[in-house]
Specification:
single chain, mainly beta, Immunoglobulin-like, eight-stranded mixed sheet, five-stranded mixed sheet, 2 helices, elongated
Length: 188
């Protein structure tokens, strides 16, 4: 029983030390980093004819699409494709914004920094252009993720959540149901 109380005291001491190390103002809601079909607001869906290039916008917004609760100084991000085999569309060009500098490749990592700290309810980080790699079998998702906490003008970190975008291709060849015997003949 004495071991338990010593172990419990140590655990409580570690917990108190960890809590003391947290910033004074805890983050109670999360701002978002996402992809949008529009450069002025979050639109989480785009319909694109297969074969046509298309643009999406990497953006930052406050909780519930409201004003960002801090002035953005820097953020690290990367594009995400839908799971299981990769995305049928691939980025081809990133158009830089007037207020941010970007270093890196959007499929690996981009470090974006603001020349002058920016704020607002919808801050476009970059316009990213895509083209098709192969014909998709149906709708798929693209997204963008933070690679580290965003940093405000005072150097404080902010945890971000994500907002994905669904791409709905048109003009694709629909998949046909195949019988089991026709699938077996493919491997004979």
């Amino acid at each position: 029983m004495a071991f338990f109380s010593v172990s419990l005291k140590r655990s409580l001491l570690v917990l108190v030390i960890m809590l003391a190390a947290l910033p004074v103002a805890a983050q109670s809601s999360y701002s978002a980093l996402g992809l949008s079909a529009s450069p002025t607001e979050y639109i989480g869906e785009i319909t694109v004819p297969f074969g046509d290039d298309f643009s999406l916008y990497v953006f930052v917004t406050g909780p519930d699409l409201a004003v960002l609760p801090f002035e953005l100084a820097a953020i690290d991000w990367a594009l995400l494709g839908s799971c299981c085999g990769g995305s049928p569309a691939y980025y081809v060009q990133t158009l830089l914004s007037e207020t941010l500098q970007h270093e890196g490749n959007p499929t690996i990592a981009v470090h974006s920094t603001a020349d002058i700290c920016v704020s607002g309810n919808f801050i476009v980080l970059a316009e990213v252009q895509f083209n098709w790699i192969y014909e998709p079998t149906g709708p798929f998702y693209l997204g963008v993720a933070t690679l580290a906490a965003a940093v405000d003008c005072e150097g404080d970190p902010w945890i971000m959540t994500g907002l994905p975008l669904q791409v709905i291709p048109t003009g694709i060849t629909p998949t046909q149901d195949e019988s089991w015997s026709s699938l077996k003949t493919l491997f004979r």
